[in-house]
Amino acid sequence: MSDTILKATNISKIYGKHKALDKVSIEIKRGMIYGLIGENGAGKSTFMRIIMGLISIDEGDIELFGQTGMQGLQRARRKMGQSIETPALYPELTARENLQVQAANGGVSEREIDDLLRLMNLGNTGKKKAKNFSLGMRQRLAIASTLITNPEFLILDEPTNGLDPSGIVEMREIIQRLVTERGMTVLLSSHLLDELSQVATHYGILHNGRLISELSQEELANETRQYIELETTEVHAAVIVLDEFGIRDYEVINGTEINIYERLDDVAAINRSLVLANVDVLRIGTTRQKLEDYFLQLTGGTSHA
């Protein structure tokens, strides 16, 4: 069994003179929670619709579960679920009745329903009709509807959009359980890196239709980790003091700034050593690059659309 669920190579989609996607290549391995991050209009939904076969591509190749070509991809997509085009919910029916209808439509048994209701925290909704559900409950029911056929690969387009903080936490926990309890692979999107960082294992950053960065959870943490920021007019002398102090993990940023990535609790001691060595310290303290600042730094933006 191949570990690669999705391999998209040089995918392009053009609408008139606008390139919605420009040679995007993404590979998703089994068990990943792959977060696609980008501003509104960056191409996230377009990419997801292409993978699901809802729109065609103008350039590139797609491989799903090792399958290629029109017939191969059609077979592979039977192993997939998606919330891009939300399945119709029947407002006059209960959660259980909605899933029974979806099971009938999918030609599968109803044996998964109890487990899905539990998984989606809908097990206690009883006779409550879907029209009386909160937004979060409706979104969880919609996802449950896509899971009724027990897919291996799930695509979720902005699953936390519009939810309140408690609903966001609940959705995040559900996505993680889909991977740990049901062995799924997940591709999800958001325009908020901070939100994705709390659930995804890997990230792809889209900007103006291009994939400008890919990184793992560990790499993202490293890019945005806490550090000691030292500002001095005597960088060379400061480096000598840091070396004598036993600090090895640091970076000279420019002619006046040094970032120190270890011994974060020793700011006072480091400062004292610098002062004793007659190094002029203009500023020293711990800081952390915010995730959204990191995203904006990559995209060259100032705010999200």
Automatic annotation (TrEMBL):
Occurrences of domain ABC transporter (ranges): 6-233
Domain of life: Bacteria
InterPro entries: AAA+_ATPase, ABC_transporter-like_ATP-bd, ABC_transporter-like_CS, P-loop_NTPase
Gene3D superfamilies: P-loop containing nucleotide triphosphate hydrolases
Pfam family membership, one: ABC_tran
Keywords annotated in UniProt: ATP-binding, Nucleotide-binding, Transport
GO molecular function terms attached to this record: ATP binding; ATP hydrolysis activity
SUPFAM superfamilies xrefs: P-loop containing nucleoside triphosphate hydrolases
Family statement: Belongs to the ABC transporter superfamily.
Annotated PANTHER family: ABC TRANSPORTER, ATP-BINDING PROTEIN
Protein name: Bacitracin ABC transporter ATP-binding protein
Record lineage: Bacteria, Bacillati, Bacillota, Bacilli, Bacillales
